[in-house]
Amino acid sequence: MSKILKFTQFSIRDLIVAAAPTVLTIVGICLLAYWLVDPAPPRTVRLGTGQENSAYEEFGKKYAAVLAKHGVKVTLVPSAGSSENLRNLKAGKVDIAFMQSGSTNEEAAEREGLTSLGSLFVEPLWLFLREEKGKPPVTRLTDLRGKKINYGPKGAGSPRLFRQILELNGVEKGEVERFSLANTPATVELLEGRIDGLVFTSAPEAPLIQMLLQTPGIKLFDFNQAEAYSRKLPFLTHVMLPQGIVDLGRNLPAEDYHLIAPTATLVGREDLHPALVDLFVQAAAGIHGGAGWFQQQGQFPSAKYTEIPVDAEAAKFYKSGPPFLQRYMTFWLANFFDRMWVLVVALGALILPLSKVVPPLYVWRIRSRVYKWYGQLRAVEQKVEDAPAATRMQVYEEQLRRLDEIEELVNQVSIPLSFADGLYGLRSHIQFVRKRILFLMGDASPTAPEAVPV
Higher pLDDT residue, 17 or 204? Predict the structure, then answer.
């Protein structure tokens, strides 16, 4: 029978097993906190743009290209314009969209759960009219009575705005024959002479604006009362289209034009992930931050010029610039570390109390290897005590063999040296039970020599 005892200084395996429930609990709670308290930003986002060949469409493509570099897919959702984008935001059909100032107000935006990511650029109200030979040019909006003007499709921002402008001039509904074509077909109708003019609000980067400004026979209306309009409608800004800005060589336009302009704003739903807000605002700084026809370098994007409350993350960007980590890391890596504070809080709350459970579990696991054999010893003693007189010797012999089996198994137990006293105590107790059985066997045998009880 082998008497080799397997001792180690420390049981890594037992420590791992004892700590496993605690570690799994901590990991599980941390993962739950990581995903529920501050979920990862989505990989896709829906951006409401505008009509074909509009500035909203062109800028939407630029945003999609910038965010694609960071692993975020931007799905462009075309619309008639600002008003339809507002409806789509309210209905949850888009996550973020271009809108022009004046489309809603602060109370309505808060009620609908909308938030501004900042104003991006001014988009003047362009009124292009077909010049008619032999007739004086249109210099006042009251001169539009009886003319065919395309206001833009339903859902665009220009029909509502132009209707307000006409009302300020005393032009009643019905005095101007209204058309509601999209910008591209309306431009065709204007060039073919089937309508007298068209209206739309857009940044000058829109292809249709660039084309119409250089088309012979098409004249841009000069809002020479622009300052008065900006006082009457506070969401409007008086801007100047400088002489020669389109083409200096051809001196297009040949004079300065006064225009009135709402401001284009990037509006999102209030549940838009903060990391995506950061990404869109940073993209806006790159796309709209330069000098333009109506803006100075760095004037846009801005937290100004919007009646919708500015998102907290966007306001932080306008005040302090991009998040610190995003200046030196990729978007996803910076976002991961930025969200690690959730894990730090969870770990701080869990590790200290749960770590106190591990040492007792470790001690119990080691000592249980010894303690479980005491049940076997007690069973042997019970059978010896309950043995019938007729079969007593047979029971004693069986229990001695059982003790040999127990001792053999105990000798194979491996425990750390710091717990060896328990194992040696068990072996001495096995020996004690063996001597007691031998004493009883000697006492029960008629021919045995006198035995001395232990």
Answer: 204
CB 77 within 8 A of CB 93: yes
Is the pTM higher than 0.90? The answer reads no
Terminal alpha carbon distance of the chain: 24
If you search the block for the tokens 């959702």, which residue do you land on? 77
Check if the beta carbon of residue 112 is closer than 8 Å to that of residue 273.
no
The answer to whether 75 and 46 have CB atoms below 8 angstroms apart is yes
Dist CA 61 CA 55 (whole Å)? 10
Q: What is the pLDDT of residue 346?
A: 64
* 140 phi, psi to nearest 5 deg: -130, 145
CB atoms within 10 A of CB 360: 10
Quick check: 434 and 403 in contact, CB under 8 A? Answer: yes
Mean pLDDT, rounded, for 304-322: 88
Six token digits for residue 38? 């501050």
- Calpha distance 273→157 (Å, rounded): 27
Map residue 121 onto helix, strand or coil.
strand
Which residue, 230, 88, 67, 107, is CA-closest to 161?
230
